[in-house]
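hiii, so i know i said id send this last week but things got crazy w the move. better late than never?? heres the sequnce for the chain we talked about at the cafe, plus the structure i predicted for it. fair warning i was half asleep when i ran it
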Amino acid sequence: MPLGLSARVLPDSQRRTIPDLVDDLDLTSGDDRSKRSAFWTMLTLSALIATAGVITDSTATVIGAMIIAPLSTPIMGIALGLATREPGAAARSSRYVVVGGLLVVAIGTVFGWALPGSFELLSNGQITGRTSPGLLDLVAAVATGFAGAIALARRDVSAVLPGVAIAISLVPPLAVVGVCLGDRAPALAFGALMLFLSNLVALVLAGTLVFTVLAYTAAKGTDAPAGASHRRTYLTLVLATVVVAVPLLANTVATLYLSLLTGRVEEVASTWVEQQPGASVSTVNISGTDLVIEVQTPSGLPPVDELLDALREEVPQGVRVVVTSTVGERIDAGTVEGT
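okay and structure toks below
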């Protein structure tokens, strides 16, 4: 961070000291027994609240879990340990993150096991919204990480921390991981795990950059940490960010492609149903290799062979087209073949 910019973002008059941050973020410093008790109590409660909110598809409940979730404390503790190069500090905080994350996943898994067989994961907005992360999620997480780190580093903006807690999603995606594992949906669980890891890396990256400015200022006139060591830390964090960003970028591209594909299919299908007065296309969904077209119609459907012919130029070969209607028809139109 350039000196001029750092002076504006972290003015000397408002900068907190490194010892103050250590006391807040290192769960093994000071009254460590009370800190650990508070951490595990609030994390368990936030996991229960988040899991209940996810299963009931309640946004308000999930937000409540975000506000009280303490998992960002050891994550920022990792960033502080990397910035100050305090021996073992980052490793100690990492253990709390790993064990705490496993606790949340375990609670979610128990709830997932107890779900009835009729429960549909993909019909739940709290689950689907966290199982398909994209590159913009990482961008938002980095910005949120900077907001959280700056709020911690300044004395005058700590009031924004509840908003940061809501913006960065830590416990809810872990709860989704557990629920999906308990309901035997590992692919969805992996998507939610990627969301958590992207937020974790973003917080550590942003926090390390901000806290390094404080550590450098505090170390003026002393044996300051070597610049090469900080460069190695930044390189490691950048590489971790790239590793997380690659699958998110791939998922973003796939999502855009599917959006364009379903848009073209909807146009073709809309032209097809115009033959039936009063009929219209309701939705177009892709389920595995099936292309499902839902049609609202007061009576029957036009010949599906015409739809299949029209789609040959729009969708890849091997896709099975299924048409459903509001009058109860479900027609397997066949598989799209090459021309």
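btw The first helix runs from residue 3 to 9. thought thatd interest u
miss u guys!!
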